[in-house]
Design goal:
The chain has 15 helices and no strands. By secondary structure, it is mainly α. The protein folds into 2 domains: 179 residues, Growth Hormone, Chain: A, CATH 1.20.1250.20; 179 residues, Growth Hormone, Chain: A. The radius of gyration is 20 Å and the shape is globular. The relative contact order is 0.14.
Length: 386
């Protein structure tokens, strides 16, 4: 037996931890560059380890959870994140630092997938709305870590702050180890043939392609917007970073609305609102006025808020017997989108200029709109609520 509220709250804690995990490496980059005297090439190599770890964790968590359940996977993942925090804080060996960053990403990828999957499993209805609510905690974690580092930078060292936050991960591991989760779906053996058949499922591939675009859209906004604002509008780096933080605020607020006052809207209505917000956001970002650009980023954050909760909710409903494995497949595709399109954006910016960020964003929106309505076309219940 398990308590749904306790499981849900523990999943929120895990998602908060994942939000902190994704933002920490970039936030403490100056500390690491100074400690190890890194050049740009070494820094780039170091930062590429994190997404590789996240990708590996995202691939492995699904089959494990479907066969063995969530408790041990979540506890072990939180433990890996804690080790990663402490390694980043105190490591004096560059090799050990790279190992810790990989473990950091591995635990983060697994805990992201598993917390989403367990919330979907315990939600009899309103899966998308509940997935939106735990997405709020991702935003809080992503916003909270830079705020803490900035607020305490003149009080304690960055290493001490990172190590202290790492204690939260060890606390999460203890919590996960002490509470009951839903039983494994396939105690007597994982259905390998059924799992492989998911790779040929048309609906799942459409959702995976949608999330490929969704994740890559988020990536180009997160990674290229500050450069765009500095070069195209001429703002300072601090103003550009402030604008980017408001993108995360827009996404977090929209997910909060989806989990509360908008939870009775249909998937079609939510996706339509999202695409309209994205189009308006892109139009406003194509400007030389700073305040219009801020408004555009807030709207883009709101427009991108629905993608993962809505699509993962559909996956959980349609593939209930292998929900965690199906989550693994679509999340891995999403992460590939992050890597591939981010690289393409770099080539585009280097060859033609950063202004082409607008055209890349518009192309992503067109693809997402097409794929979103193809997914809806394959849904038997077109008015299914989030």
């Amino acid at each position: 037996m398990f308590n749904k509220k306790i499981v849900f709250l523990s999943a929120c804690f895990g998602m908060l931890l994942f939000g902190v995990t994704l933002i920490t490496l970039g936030s403490v980059a100056p500390m690491l560059i100074g400690r190890f005297n890194l050049d740009q090439l070494a820094s780039g190599t170091l930062f590429s380890i994190l997404p590789f770890g996240v990708l590996t964790g995202s691939l492995l968590f699904g089959p494990f959870c479907d066969k063995y359940g969530y408790k041990y996977l979540l506890a072990f993942s939180a433990l890996l994140i804690g080790i990663g925090f402490e390694g980043i804080a105190f490591s004096s060996s560059f090799l050990w630092l790279k190992v810790c960053i990989f473990l950091f990403g591995l635990g983060g990828g697994a805990i992201n997938g598993a917390t989403n999957a367990v919330v979907a499993d315990i939600s009899i209805k309103d899966k998308g709305a509940n997935l939106s609510l735990i997405g709020v905690f991702f935003g809080l974690g992503a916003l909270g870590m830079p705020f803490i580092l900035g607020f305490l930078e003149n009080v304690v060292s960055t290493s001490v702050i990172v190590a202290s936050v790492g204690l939260l991960a060890f606390l999460a591991a203890a919590i996960f180890g002490c509470i009951n989760f839903p039983l494994p779906k396939h105690i007597n053996g994982f259905p390998i043939r059924r799992g492989l058949a998911l790779l040929k499922d048309r609906m799942l591939m459409l959702i995976a392609l949608f999330l490929f675009c969704q994740c890559s859209f988020e990536a180009i906004v997160n990674n290229w917007t500050t450069t765009y604002l500095i070069k195209q509008i001429g703002v300072s780096q601090s103003k550009a970073l402030y604008a980017l933080s408001l993108f995360v605020v827009g996404m977090t607020l929209m997910r909060l609305l989806m989990g509360s006052v908008l939870r009775n809207l249909s998937i079609k209505a939510i996706l339509t609102i999202s695409f309209v917000l994205l189009l308006a956001g892109i139009a406003l970002l194509n400007t030389s006025v700073y305040l219009r650009a801020i408004a555009g980023l807030v709207l883009m954050g709101g427009g991108l808020a629905a993608g993962f909760p809505v699509m993962l909710g559909i996956v959980a409903t349609r593939y209930a017997d292998l929900s965690a494995t199906a989550f693994s497949l679509v999340l891995v595709m999403a992460l590939f989108g992050n890597m591939v399109v981010n690289y393409l954006m770099g080539m585009l910016a280097n060859t033609y200029g950063i202004r082409y960020l607008i055209y890349m964003a518009l192309a992503e929106l067109i693809l997402m709109t097409l794929l979103g309505f193809l997914v809806l076309g394959n849904q038997k219940n077109k008015q299914l609520k989030i």
